[in-house]
Amino acid sequence: MRVTALSGGVGGARFLRGLLAHIDRTPSLSDTTVTVIGNTGDDITLFGLRVCPDLDTVLYTLGGAVHEGQGWGRADDGYAVQAELASLGVPPDWFALGDKDFGTHIARSLWLGQGLSLSQVTARLAERWGLPDRGVTLLPMTDIPVETHVVVDQGTGPQAVHFQEWWVRMRAAVPAQRFVVAGMDRAVPAPGVLDAICNADVVLLPPSNPVVSIGIILGVPGIRDALRGTRAPVVGVAPLVSGRPVRGHADACLQAIGVPATSSAVAALYADFLGGWLVDDSDADIALPTGVTSQARPLLMTDLSAAADIAGAALDLGGQLARS
Ligand code: FO1
What we know:
- This protein is of the alpha/beta class.
- The chain contains 12 helices and 14 strands.
- Helix 1 packs parallel to helix 2.
- The radius of gyration is 19 Å and the shape is globular.
- The two termini are 18 Å apart.
- The structure holds ligand FO1.
- The site of ligand FO1 has 18 residues, from helix 2 and helix 6.
């Protein structure tokens, strides 16, 4: 079975880890491959290095090396390099990059500088984390450099700040007026992205942020059309439980685009291609766009087994839709 999943940051990576656990424990899925289309709108250049947070979170989480409490960065990492940079007065100090994490960013920046594409660089990093051995391919949504910027007004008129500055330094506490993706006008899907959507047996939307993760991926010209046109059922997992994001700032992001923070409203954002929608038990009776089949179940990924159960339910709903 060919599974394709769009993925953003921590929630997406944890869902994917559950999906692989479910595949490993299900003999009938033994020949399953997973292609992950990762968001690159969060990417940022720091200290002259290209940092790809959502790709790295998938790599580290599936590679078993992620800092579990944070959901990003490396477990057991130190911060000697960043401390030295701070002592030299080199900003920023609000984005924590660990010493091992710097290794990833140095290698990526070196390879990009040698002319490799982001896809080729990501394939090398995926190799290092054993993803191919588990039937997993990680593709950036595009090889064209893009960056999500957030327009805010702190009293001196509208200004655009990088997504990471809004998300991390401002903790999304300053209302976002809108999101602008620099470079998106030149973006095209990375090699293999459209094929992974059009020739999948099922396409999954993990509980990633619908605005700044999934929404950004959908903004790459051609990707939304592929989702509308694929014969594969598209099954999403609501990123909200009782109107609250499980983590992150999805509610602040939805507010910025004038969308209510409800599982129903998020499903409506995907209505032109969504077939199935997993919702939390607390949202069992929500209104859904026509043509969308929902299923209510516990959606908190409290541990690996819970994440595997959720991923299994999403696959099962996809199979049900494919048969109907
Ligand atoms: N998130 C934070 O809240 N604080 C940080 O200092 C931080 C550093 C960081 C470094 C590397 C990386 O890959 C991710 C990092 N993140 C940090 C998380 C990041 O902002 C988010 O994971 C995504 O960009 C949104 O999904």
